Amino acid sequence: MHIPNRATGIGIAVLGAAAAYGGSLLPPVPGQQVGPNVFPMVIGIGLVLCGIAIAIGIGKSFEEPEEVVASEDGAHVPADAVPPVAHGALKTLVPPLLLLFYAFTVDHLGFIPTAAVMVATTCFALGGTWRSALVLALCAPPAVHLIFAKLLRVPLPPGLLPMPW
Amino acid sequence: MSTFIEAWQMVLAPDVLMAILLSAIYGLVVGSLPGLSATMATALLVPVTFYLSPIAAIATIITASAMAIFSCDIPGCLLRIPGTPASAAYTDEAYAMTRKGQPELALGICLWFSALGGVFGTLSLIIMAPLLAEFALSFSTFEYFWLAFLGLMCATVVARSSPVKAIAAMLLGLLIACVGIENPAGTPRFTFGMTDLLGGIEVIPALVGCFAVAEVMRAMSVPEPPQLARRKFGSILAGQWKLTKEYPKQQARGNIVGIIIGVLPGAGADMAAWVSYAMAKRFSKTPEKFGTGHPEGLIEAGASNNASLASGWVPSLLFGIPGDTITAIAIGVLYMKGLNPGPTLFTEKASSMYALYIIFMLGNIIMIPLGIIMIRLATFILRAKRYMIMPVIVLLCAVGSFATGNNLFLVITVAAFGCIGYLMEKNGFPVAALVLGIVMGSMVEQHFITSLIKSDGSLLPFFARPVSAILAAITIGLMVWPLAVWLYKKRPQATAAAA
Fold first, then answer.
1. Strand A67-69 to strand A76-78: parallel, antiparallel, or no bridges (unpaired)?
2. Torsional class of B342: left (φ above 0), alpha (ψ -120 to 50), beta (otherwise)
3. ipTM at complex level
4. Which of these, B86, B220, B258, B493, could form a disulfide with A91 (CB 3.0-4.6 Å)?
5. Residues of A in contact with B493 (CB under 8 A)
6. Is B395–A71 a contact, with Cβ atoms under 8 angstroms apart?
7. What is the pLDDT of residues B403-451, one digit of tens each?
8. Residues of chain A contacting B489 with CB distance shorter than 8 Å
9. Which residues, in sequence order, are CB contacts of B64 under 8 Å at separation 6+?
């Protein structure tokens, strides 16, 4: 998702102004000139300056276009020139959404079913067949559970499908 | 001498040896997979180091990162897909050798000269670190502040993107580090009433999110890289000794440049490899051969990036200032294991330091046999489908970040930083600068505030001491040069418009 420099610059400047303002509201340390407000204010001002610089195009000459390897001979082409993956933008959201799914459901469903859903969905989203997704969903969660829960003693919730170890 | 023997006893403990072997295999395999960088390999290992002894934990990070840096050359050489920005400098050269039918020679150079570079880098670490530690004992908070800030600025210069965007990314990292109550006054900042944010943003989930989740997100929107054709390799090390004798200058120059760049805070293997490749071409008697599969540049840059990896530990161990993103992760592990970086580390925990040197040496020595095995297996590993690897990485991101604090909020943090990292990368903001900002935020603030309290709010003492004045001049110079370049480039346009 490419955002124009002007928009990112303004966004950064607004964030910096908010940080500086938020910092200025912090209570000072009694009897001292310097408190917890100084550092966020300095950073906030810095971000405002950077935001303005980005918006007006300072430093743009240093930027290089993103390239990907497109063919077997290793030829590099600009990322924009490659035919886009079907539903690429939507698929991009799959990993963070799956992590949120894990965070909110693992205590109820348990580690193995939650992990199986994550693994199978990612596999599908990357173009895997249902067979490879099934194999991965059956093998990867127990293996990860064995390493983390049994060997490293991480308390992974058993939920609906507790493991025998 | 007794300290040295104690260090050997630490390293030869079965758990440490096992950690070295397993992390070496892990580093080689993950590094060789296109799209999985050395930093990502190291970041995913950190949750595991929580459960290891201090020396085993450090050994895991050192070995895995050294192996992954070498191993990242393999996809670069065989597929022209650099595994890490450090190997991008000479990928075209190595790939040209593969096209000429000499893949084993190219991979052999990467392996042999990486191992030699690593050994020289370790020697520099052994010699330089204690000497600099004595010098660093006289540093006050002013020097520490400028040194940390210089480290951050170097990281923005190294990034191959707009320096303004790099500075913005670094400041964003520093702002993220402000969250929580870990500030000189213990006041909650930017927590928005959430108890989970009181402790601040954890570095490890942020790292995992920025480097691993963002990479999986990127993989979702780009086509799968082309597959490697099956091939059989000849002898990997054949001809390497001859090349060592033929190009001693290039090798020595690569090692020295790598060591110097590694010692600079904030500048790591990436910069070392690019600078060395450019130097090799500049000083070569046959510069026209560069880019056509000529070993000279490959030797110099390959030696340089591994030499910088070891010497990058000098600022990390002495000042807690990371040389690059890998040492940024390592610093987190050092703190976690009670080996807090600082000049006193060399006197109070001398045996642990010796153990660290020994692990570096062992890591670079076992790199040769394990690297040869890895190259021979590369045909099979590089054929692994992305849809079989990435799902496991997403799962490891969730479990690994949860393991760092047994708190599901950390998994949400990983998801958030995945999105931040992805968006930043897509828009030309270097993620490494953001990460260094997060890692060094509390340290920079602590030295800044302490110095301001000492100087009664005045900025003049920041420039009063000779070392701090020099460091300040370099830092400010790095900060204003994008503006100077912009003004310089505007000048001819303005003159032309006036004419």
1. antiparallel
2. left
3. 0.90
4. B220
5. none
6. no
7. 878 889 999 999 999 999 999 988 889 888 888 888 888 888 888 988 9
8. 61
9. B23, B24, B26, B27, B30, B41, B42, B45
